[in-house]
Specification:
Its main location: membrane. The protein has 11 helices and 2 strands. By secondary structure, the chain is an all-alpha fold. The protein has a single domain (3-298), classed as Rhodopsin 7-helix transmembrane proteins (Rhopdopsin 7-helix transmembrane proteins), CATH 1.20.1070.10. Strand 1 (156-158) and strand 2 (165-167) form a beta hairpin. The protein starts with 10 loop residues before the first helix and ends in a 15-residue tail after the last helix.
């Protein structure tokens, strides 16, 4: 067997790496399968943005099913199984699912940013057909980048520790071909999507913070709602970045220090790779926590903001509005909705819920 496919780790480290990957694979399959089953049961009720969450679950479970068995087997074998052919397959699948995942998260963030806090007249409402087209575009985009190494721009190769395959990061300094591919891939498929995720979710947190301030009084106790929604935003935006940042750092170090590759302990290159794979496990947890804990609170806060933005100008009407909102603050939005549609209000100002 080619030496580049022999494990650079000790048999003990390989064994425990295989156990870890096996656990990650099981949890990922079960968690994402639960998301897909839940979506299938309410397929007719799914709102357009929820299709992005379904797509994210498909990429995560696809990665667990198509890639993890090969890496687990190779870890227990103490050498990569299948040689060049399986390495090419593994790198191809990794590119497709990784790019699809990060682009889906970026689009999901932008969709939620656009619909959060929008007033009824100018609010964004995405159709399922529109989101379906966007998802198809994401898969085509990922497939195109995955095919480039097969067409001669860039290449796939084994990771330094010998039990995984990815882009040949060490080829960056060897040719202009590799350098241009890696830099283009890094900017268009890593840095820009990551900046979009950070901007979108912290933008959501800022919108909700400003909305809370605009309606804050001694009678409104919405601080906890704001904190929980902000926490969800931080979880979603930071979870993926935390998982993949160590891998990106090590990969970029390999790019610019290819001649010093032998001086880095193989286990140092292994750990970021294992940590990155954990992202397929907690994505389903984020989905369930966000959807079932915070969505109804987000909608309640949005409705309250919309309601207050349409309140009458006279002090008497303002007092009446505040009284009705306070009475409905026990969890019912009916007072606000009724007031929005009351005679004498602005036409077309009914509450529009968004997801």
């Amino acid at each position: 067997m080619d030496d580049k496919y022999m494990s650079k780790l000790s048999p003990t480290v390989d064994f425990w790496a295989g156990i870890y990957l096996f656990i990650i694979a099981i949890l990922s399959i079960l968690g994402n399968a639960a998301v897909l089953v839940n979506a299938a049961r309410r397929i007719t009720l799914l709102k357009a943005p929820e299709l992005l969450t379904v797509n994210l679950a498909i990429t995560d479970i696809g990665m667990a099913l198509s890639m993890y068995p090969l890496s687990i087997s190779s870890a227990f074998n103490h050498a990569w199984i299948g040689g060049d052919t399986s390495c090419l397959y593994y790198g191809l699948m990794g590119m497709i699912f990784s790019i699809t995942s990060i682009m889906t998260l970026a689009v999901m963030g932008m969709v939620r940013y656009l619909v959060t806090g929008s007033p009824p007249r100018t609010g964004f409402k995405f159709q399922r057909r529109t989101i379906s087209i966007v998802i198809s575009g994401i898969w085509l985009y990922a497939g195109l980048w995955a095919l480039f190494p097969l067409l001669g721009w860039g290449s796939y190769g084994p990771e330094p520790f010998g039990l995984s395959c990815s882009i040949d990061w060490t080829g960056y300094g060897e040719s202009l071909n590799h350098a241009t591919f890696i830099m283009s891939l890094s900017v268009l498929c890593t840095f820009l999507p990551c900046l979009t995720i950070v901007f979108a979710y912290f933008g959501i947190a800022w919108k909700l913070h400003k909305a809370y301030q605009s309606i804050q009084s001694n009678d409104f106790q919405y601080g906890n709602i704001e904190k929980k929604i902000t926490l969800m935003a931080v979880m979603i935006s930071s979870g993926f970045l935390i998982a993949w940042t160590p891998y990106v750092i090590v990969s970029f170090w390999s790019m610019f220090h290819s001649l010093e590759q032998d001086h880095m302990a193989p286990v140092i290159t292994l750990l970021p790779c294992l940590f990155a794979k954990s992202s397929t496990v907690y994505n389903p947890l984020i989905y369930f926590v966000f959807q079932r804990t915070s969505s109804h609170k987000l909608l309640r806060l949005q409705r309250l903001v919309f309601c207050c933005s349409h309140q009458a100008s006279s002090s008497a009407e303002r007092a009446e509005l505040e009284s009705k909102i306070v009475k409905g603050s026990d969890g019912s939005d009916k007072a606000c909705v009724g007031l929005m549609g009351a005679p004498g209000r602005h036409p077309g100002s009914e509450v529009t819920t968004v997801s």
